[in-house]
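Milestone M4 deliverable, item 7.
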Amino acid sequence: MTLFQQQMDCCLNRIEADLASRMDRLPKGLQAQVVEAMKYSLLGGGKRIRALLVLEFCRICGGDPEQALPFAAAIEMVHAYSLIHDDLPCMDDDDLRRGKPSCHIAFGEAIALLAGDALLTLAFETAADADLAPRQTLRAVRELSHAAGTAGMIGGQVLDIENLADDLDTLQTMCAMKTGALIRVAARLGCIAAGAGEEQIRLADRYGQKMGLAFQITDDILDITGDAAVLGKPVGSDAGNQKTTFTTLLPLETADALAQELLEESLAAVEEMTGSGEFIVQLTHMLATRRR
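Output delivered:
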């Protein structure tokens, strides 16, 4: 096992343990079914990309990643909520997520909807509990709210479900909002947890901006070339829903070249940051060249 894999496993184990502990503290009375649906979706696998970025950017900026765990947990809760809602029949209508039935298939639409709402609410409660200076916590909550709202993820989802992204510029705008906003804010949250200066936050933001778009392009490529058994979700769903993607507007080779260009730009940003090291470089390469 490589040093990178050892470091990755250590971080992932810490993230999973923290998330499980937080879910175990939820009430288990008459609302137990919605709590089970929340756990099913939040703890049911996933790459934990956003949480990893929070912890790593905290480390790069000289902070203690343990102090950034509430922000890492909060962003994973927001992400899990978004996936529950994305899979609903009124959205993408997907029956499979991470290799198992989507939340609404396992628990019914009403409980799935409420589980998503509950995870979003819990995210901000979790972030607000961070053991940091009030100004850091307040800024983090505000930035996560902004990234998850109409200027970010929800706004991007509107463009997506209304199929408004019919040209490359609009598609890039949609992806920067729907997918990129949470990746971008993950890097920023790590810096905020470390008490970093504005220059470090600016560089982290540029990294997240480029990485978020590269990540989405890779996702579009995998929707054509991937294996459902490996991905844990259906392939070809974008084409089936007649959605505009990077692979419908660009030849596959051109889309892949654009992803690689964005990868290099994200690495250039992070390499300017004081304290960056080999782990973030390898993590970035892994994210942009993944096969699931």
